[in-house]
Amino acid sequence: MMKKNVPVSTIMTKNVIKLNLKDELTKAETLFKKHNIRHIPVVSGGKIIGMLSYSDLLRISFADAVYEDEEIDSVVYDMFDISQVMTKNIVSITENTTIKETAEILASKEFHALPVVKDEQLVGIVTTTDLIKYLLNQYN
């Protein structure tokens, strides 16, 4: 029987890889590939102001749409800054949000990652992958 009120803090990633507004998009691409992740919160003074996904980068890079293996042309990156590419209307949750509530939000929206905040400061991130892993563990 699955526990109903387990908080999302038990499955979220706590040491979040993040970007600042001043960071270049080339840095974002490096982080995506190095850590094999798909979403990076964008912060200003520890406060979350946006979310950059790998698909956001692909959307502005024409080369990658055609040739998957080729490096994205960094010239394209120099034409944009993070604030132009990131998603600004983000939904965030708190550490006490239950896993069930988190799943409901992710299932009803278009995105696949939610920032977790405490007093407006970013303290974690939870993704659909985290949820699936948690659910699979319930069957063991």
UniProtKB/TrEMBL annotation:
Protein name, per record = Membrane protein
The protein's UniProt keywords, in alphabetical order, are:
CBS domain
Keyword presence, Magnesium: no
**PANTHER family, per the entry:** CBS DOMAIN-CONTAINING PROTEIN, CBS DOMAIN-CONTAINING PROTEIN CBSX3, MITOCHONDRIAL
Task: Please name the source species.
Answer: Planktosalinus lacus
Q: Does the keyword Oxidoreductase apply?
A: no
Pfam families (alphabetical): CBS (PF00571)
CBS domain sequence ranges: 12-71, 86-140
